[in-house]
Amino acid sequence: MKYSYVKPRKKTPFTPEFQLIIIFFGISISMLMTTYIFLLYKNYTFEKDKMRIVNERLALQKDIELLNTKIAYIQKQKALAEKIYTNNTVLRDSIANLFDLVPERITLSKAQLLKNGLILYGITPNKDVYNFMLQAPLRSIFQKTYTSFYPAKNGWLHFVSKNYMEDDTTDDEELTNED
Amino acid sequence: MWSKKVVLSKIFEALYVKVLVNIIIQKTKTLIYIEVYGRKGVVEHIHNEFDTPTPSQQMIDFITSYTKETPYFYISYLDPSNTQGVVPTCNKNKLAYYKDISSCEYLCFNNSWTFYTSKSELYELEKEQGLLGVDFVFSPFVVLANFFQDKISSHISLYVLILEDSIVLSVFEDSMLLYGEHLVVKITDDEDTFSHVDDEDITEIEDALDENIDLEDIDVDDNIESLEDFGDIEDLDSLEDIEDFSDNRDIEEELQEGDMDLKEGDKEHFNQDYSRFTLIEESVAHYYKDDRYESKFLENIYIADSVGVSYDLKKLLEEEMFFNVYIRRIDIGVEVSEIAKKELGL
Amino acid sequence: MKINITRHHIYMITVSVILFLFVILFSFLVLIPEGKEYRQKRLALKKEFKEYYKYENYHDETVAKYKELQSKNRHIITAFDSIFNPQRFQKQHKNYFSSLILSKLNREKDEDSFAVYEVNTTSKISSPTNFYDFLDAVNKSDWIIGVNFPIDFQRDGEMIKSSFTMKVYANNKDKNSTKSGSKAK
Lengths: 179, 346, 185
Known about the structure:
- The structure holds three protein chains of three kinds.
- Chain A is built from two helices and four strands, in the order αββαββ.
- By secondary structure, chain A is α+β, with helices and mostly antiparallel strands.
- Chain A folds into two domains: about 15-100; about 105-180, no CATH class.
- In chain A, β3 (about 145-150) and β4 (about 155-165) form a beta hairpin.
- The longest helix of chain A is centred in the N-terminal third of the chain and has 86 residues, at about 15-100.
- Among the domains of chain B are: about 10-80, Nucleotidyltransferase, domain 5, CATH 3.30.420; about 190-330, no CATH class.
- Chain B is about 45% helix and about 25% strand.
- Chain B has a five-stranded mixed β-sheet with strand order 3-2-1-4-8, sandwiched between helices. Chain B has a five-stranded mixed β-sheet with strand order 11-10-9-12-13, with helices on both faces. In chain B, strands 5-7-6 form a three-stranded antiparallel β-sheet.
- In chain C, about 50% of the residues lie in helices and about 25% in strands.
- Chain C has four helices and five strands, in the order αααβββαββ.
- The interface between A and C is large, with 63 and 67 residues.
- β1 (about 105-115) of chain A pairs antiparallel with β4 (about 145-155) of chain C, so a sheet runs across the interface.
């Protein structure tokens, strides 16, 4: 201090009343700001979470598609396998039926199973036996039947029976025993 | 260069006016001078006087009515301590040579002299004025030096500030203080004395006067001694000396004084002025006698008169002490305010 | 009663008004829209979560279904995946035949996007029942094999010489579906 023995008191425009006003508004504004910052933060996290959830859902979607394709494939495999199995079983049954069809007195020497036909080579005692016992059931199964005979050594007849189906619905021959 | 805080506070300051409250405490009353200082200078000023030396509710209300305008108000006091004075050096080691200032608060003025006051009295002032507060306390010596700053820088003279109940006296030459003293005027019951002015009591009065005269005699003796120091009387008669003597007359000051109306004293004022004169005389004698002070011959006395002294004082000083007396009226409130403004840099 | 308003009061009132206006403006122009956005976003997120849970449930069901199918049809799946090994086949089914000869594997045209290999087989059996049993056994073999026409039976002394074609079905290698891993939890 240049001339005075004492230093003057600190002079500030922030009198107690003014300080009160500032503190009051300060608290209010800081509360508003806190709320605002909170809202900003929450909005940001909401957006982020939404993105995340959407992405996860899409991933799930993709995976579901993938699984569905795999499921479809397995089902296809199963269908094919079942078809094959049934085919085999049907084949077995048909062959069994065929051989059951052949009566005792007729002996087959060769049988050719084709897709739409059946060719039998064998010996029959006489035509009648062949016609009644073999030809008739064959006729009932096949649409076209051709038989040719030629005599055998011991008086019996060799026969060649060619039988064909008309319809070509499937590759497999359907030999169902209608008896 | 300026920190952010300083810049901010300067902006705040610029938004407000400053209120300078200057309080001069006297024995029976308090003088208050308030200045409202805006950007372009003094906007408002008002004097007031309260008949109590301690703050009254009225006084506080008056001051508060101005200070509530702005937070930048400064309450300045003229130091009313009984124990205060000056020392003609700023050198800390030499201070003790003149006065024991261990219990004093002191400051250096302009790197040339020190003014001091009693710490305890300062503390008491702060305590008493607690409600208002204290921002500045100025020494009357500073006020005096500032008031006569145009004269101080020239040849050696005696400068006296006359207040209601004290006298502040100092000797300056070339802006350097050679001697200074703070004198307290004892309040004599002048009124009582003069109310009894009957012929019967004149003897008593004369006795009192005689006592004063006795003192005067002694002083005259001292004066003669000092006069002898100045060489032969014959030399004094030489024209050159007379011319020098006449040059020392302050013509400017005399012209100023011309406008002034010194009262022809009535008995009451005379008593007061006489006691004032006595004190001045004592102090000057002390100055001449004391070896510690550079005792040069004083021819001129400049008086800052804040109370309105009578013509008698001038006459006494001229006739008894052979001074060229120049009296300037001073409004003490205004002058304290000037110091406050200087302190604040306004 | 003179009401004296000091400059300091004016400043304080101005500051108060400004701060008050700021509070009001901020609340209405900034805070409330942000609050609305908050509510909206929260709702949207909730909806998304619900949707996700639906998908999650469906996914879990699908995974379960897939796993079930996998476990139920393991034999078929592995059969499709296995490479036909004639030697092993011969070893496994020679019981039914007195002799079994397999030809080389021929790659045929793909059927239904499955790779098809044909094998011509000639064998000798003692009686047709062997053939029937063989056909039953083929269904349980390590591969998906279908016995196909033309099938020949020819009497050869006490034995029956039989020849037939077998079609072996397998996964097409570029399909690569059973080998890849899925997100099955």
